Amino acid sequence: MNDPLIHTDQLNYRGRNLSNWMLIIISGLLCFGALMVFSAGASVDREFQWSNCWQYITVRRVLFVPIVWIVLAIVSRLNYRKFLVWNRFFWVSPLIWALLISIGLLVLVLLVGEELCGSKRWLKIGPIKMQPSELAKWTTIMFIAAFAARRDEKINRFWTSYVPACSILLLVAALIGYEDLGTGALVAVVGLAVLFIAGMRWWHPLTLLPLIAAGGYFLIFKVPYRWARVMAFISGEQSGFEETRYHAEQSIMAIGSGGLWGAGLGTGRIKLGWLPEDTTDFIFAVIGEELGFFGCTLVIFLYLSLLLACTQAVIRCRDRLGKLLVLAIGSTIVTQAVINLFVVTRMAPTKGIALPYISAGGSGLLVTAFATGVMLNVARRMDFDLPALENQS
Q: Where in the chain does DSSP place strands (E)?
């Protein structure tokens, strides 16, 4: 602290203030998402039954909001270093165990996972149904940030820093990308970006070009439905890909029909069987139809506000680990939102990736809440000097 007149309590107040603003923005996205999922999930083909209400995706999404708030409240008040930092005995770190468990679940879902819409992404363990890729995404991103912070100035070393970090990163990205290419690519891109900003040399990522080319060949070109999506996006209105372009065309029609103020909340028609995945991947199309340009702008404004708050936390945070964590978590959320908006507005090939905090979801929403709680935790402590990771016991 350069100014001796600034008291520690004042610094703590500034951190709490930014953390509270982040919480307000995230709460706005959560509540808005619950409202729109409830509207998009409206059904006219069956009567509502309270005895099995948990089976309704709209009810689950609404009930998850207070659960998410509880997770945010708990995690944001814990010391993030307690469960993200390791010393010589790295196996005692909760983060390491969470990463190993998530990798094991990724392998398990490929072997015995439940297939939905042509992909094995879900794992059912008793009454619990989860998507391991979401857990793996966040544990990997936070591991890369913690690893880069721990290596500090040594992060620019190829064999002792870059190779171990990229080995973990590419392993997880490949396991995820086999069934969920969008999320796998997101993990790889954000992870490499964090390493690069942390101090990785510019030529290190160039060594991945052969692996990227091979991955693109086997995961896109050799997979018919993925290649069809790419060709449908490139060909535009040309014939031959009408079925593949169906989602994107219905989505853009819904957004275009909303006009300035939309058709009105709950009165949209695209959700009545015309657009699949209207409560998850294409929820933004329902927002565009029912709330028009105003609703779309509100969503984008909230994400931009969150990006601005994260940027402020990164700039002001005095802890290297905290900086990299906010950078990793915030960029993952915003990048995922950008990808979803690009897909829904036909600016990118169709890809199943959710809109953070807004799309329907259970397990994914909870692990995202945990990662967000870590980000709020960092913001609360950002003005304090903390010891280097190497000096902690």
A: 114-116, 119-125, 128-130
